[in-house]
Fold this protein.
Amino acid sequence: MPGADADITVINPNAQEVLSKKNLKSACDYCTYEGMKVQCAIDSVFSRGELIVKNNEFLGEKGRGQFIFRKPPF
């Protein structure tokens, strides 16, 4: 669709990771998935064509996001 932006997350299906507050970026002071082992890891994230996350490090500009209000489909 012309004018539509896409955010893309590239996942490494061969990686193993143990989830924790340390490796999950959140403003929350706890992680409900603490200690859970997963069979994949996020390699990189692209937003509006720009690489914003690589190797679990945020590379984008702070505040670049835009909240989009949703309306019910009916």
